Each structure stands twice: as C-alpha cells, then as structure tokens.
Amino acid sequence: MAIQDKITQIWVKTTGRKIDPEEYYWLIGPIGAKDIIKDKFFLELAENENLEIQKNQPNSGLLETIDALGFSNEEKLLLNKNVTDFYENTSNYDFEVWSEWKGIFRPFGKLLSLVFSKRL
C-alpha cells in the first residue's frame, strides 16, 4: 500500500464519522479493486450486477424518466423542461468539461495533484 493511501485512510478515520448503510443507502456504491483501470471496472461491474452496457444510444439519459426521482406532480411542474430533457436524453448533449482551482485554494489543489494524481 502506498504511503499516501495509508495517510488518507488515517485522515478519514480520524475526521470522518461512521454511517449506517441502511439509513444512507444512497451513498453506497460500487467499489473497484486497486488494479482495475479504465473500462475494465465498468465491464466487471456490469457482469457482477447482471447489467447490460449500451453505447452510443441516441435519446438515452442518466434517467429513463425524471419520475425515477420521486417528484410530486407539483414539483415536476416547477422543473425547467431543459433540465428534464437533459436527464432523460443526456446522450444528445455534447460536453466540454474541465476543472481548476481558484485563488487561495490553488496551492492545495497542486498538492492534491502531486500526492494523488498518479494513483487516481
């Protein structure tokens, strides 16, 4: 185990708090093995969960329907139609994504990158 992994685990145990997975079920997700990189993780997850991977499907979204979020009819009426369309038809959108650290946080971002970027 790399030293930065051990330090991170100690930090999380020291500053974090335990949760009940039954109460916070929405936080629980798949955990990859240390040696899995790139698409291998998703292929193994799909196989283990009996899921089907579909690529380049037009009109596919993060959600099949916005109804999956459990909004009441009144709440759904408040949603902008573009928001609903995005979640239901995500594959129809083009993305340009980037991130950067601003102001006084920039040195911390550089440190984070130096310590972890090769590991992630």
Question: Helix- and strand-based class?
Answer: mainly alpha
Radius of gyration from CA coordinates: 19 Å
Summarize the biggest pleated sheet: none
Instruction: List the secondary-structure elements in sequence, H or E.
Output: HHHHH
What shape does the CA trace take?
extended
Helix content: 25-40%
Number of helices: 5
Poorly predicted ranges: none
| Proportion of strand residues | under 5%
β-strand number? 0
Distance between the termini: 14 Å
* Average pLDDT: 87
Please explain how this structure is put together.
The protein is an all-alpha fold and 120 residues long. It contains five helices and no strands. The chain has helices spanning 3-15, 40-48, 73-78, 81-88, 106-116. The chain has a domain at 57-120.
How is the secondary structure organized here?
Elements: H1 3-15, H2 40-48, H3 73-78, H4 81-88, H5 106-116
Short key terms for the protein model shown above:
120 residues, mainly alpha, 5 helices, 0% strand
Summarize the model shown:
The protein is mainly α. 39% of the residues lie in helices and 0% in strands.
